[in-house]
Specification:
Strand order of the largest sheet: 3-17-16-15-4
Structural class: alpha+beta
Number of strands: 17
Strand content: 25-35%
Largest sheet: 5 strands, mixed
Distance between the termini: 49 Å
Number of helices: 5
Radius of gyration: 24 Å
Amino acid sequence: KVSITSAAGYLAPEGKILDETTSFTYYDVDDLPPTDSLIAEVDRFANKLMRKKVVTLSEELEYIGPVIYENGRAREALYNNIYGHTNIRDYITCSMNMRSRKYDNTYRLMGKKVVCKDISVWQLGNDSVYNGHRMLGYRKYDADGVQPATIELIRKGILVNQLAGRRPSPVTRKSTGNQRMNGSSDYGWYASGTVLRISFDKTMSRKKLIKKLIAMAREQHSEYAYIIRDWNGMIRINTKTGEQEEVWLRNGDNPSRLQLLG
């Protein structure tokens, strides 16, 4: 993969030094956008930083209430709270212990509910493209030289297929193009997913989500509600007027070395 990191910083009117870093990651050099597009994206990132309002958190400004996650934080929340905790990655493969020559028990879950009924999962093969760019997990061929297949794995919470290489499993008799090799010995061979598409039947428009967010915050008598977009930046919504503003949240700043020395 190819990563380009952009960093920007400036002295805000409030006297605070703001700096932020963003990265653009692509599958290969061939997937890099034109230079003009990259420059425009960096300019947009820098201008957005300068528009942010600094809000220093204190005990009085602590917020415990509903939030909406967007962008990178939404991906993080999805992985940590859904993908990671439900072990989808364990259900969609069946591994063999090469010493005991026995498979794990995941194949026994075929046709059974393994996650919430609103969740469906597909592996994407050669169509692993988003916004014109190949996804980072994309592989043209697996370790057996087989192209990954586009295949439905979980349908409305029910396990319907599992991934495999040329070494078959009790329920997957044909390779799906997912063989991997970790190390030089035979014990390092295993099946693993490439690019997964996880979908939910219950969805809501952003406009309705914000309306619901404000209503929930009002029930808690909160003056503001928040949309968390990245590590420091977020949108603060006035629950009375609905006005939105981008803010830069900072924890209480530590005293400088000069202040510590008096």
